[in-house]
Design a protein that fits this description.
mainly beta; about 10% helix; 1 helix; globular; 6-stranded antiparallel beta barrel; 7 strands
Length: about 120
């Protein structure tokens, strides 16, 4: 499939921040804590995230995501964060694979470091 430059440009304009491609583990909590699962990121920014998970979620679902924010997005150092997000798109799994989840990030809170 060939994407024309006009389509590519229109897609880029919808994002408010550039995305950083990275595959990082993420813990997912949905449905007011009733559903807990894990996944991994494909890309993210401070305003949105795309991730894969084996659990099918619905558009409009509110999620809490816990992950390590890379230095490129956290002011120079890695840090654990909790992101509150809303699912805006779900891509069906192919042949038993993971579901793709696109979500807008509503807030990011740095988590305290645990020493031990």
């Amino acid at each position: 499939m060939v994407i024309s430059p006009a389509v590519s440009e229109a897609k880029r304009e919808r994002r408010s921040q550039p995305r950083l491609a990275a595959s990082l583990p993420v813990t997912i909590q949905a449905h007011q804590g009733k559903c807990r699962t894990t996944g991994y990121t494909r890309d993210f920014s401070t305003s949105g995230i795309f991730l894969y998970t084996e659990t099918q979620l619905k558009v409009g679902s509110e999620l809490e995501l816990v992950l390590v924010m890379p230095p490129e997005l956290s002011g120079g150092e890695q840090r654990w964060v909790c992101c509150r997000t809303s699912v805006v798109r779900v891509e069906d799994s192919e042949e038993g694979g993971d579901f793709g989840i696109a979500a807008v990030i509503r807030s990011i809170q740095a988590l305290p470091e645990i020493s031990g």
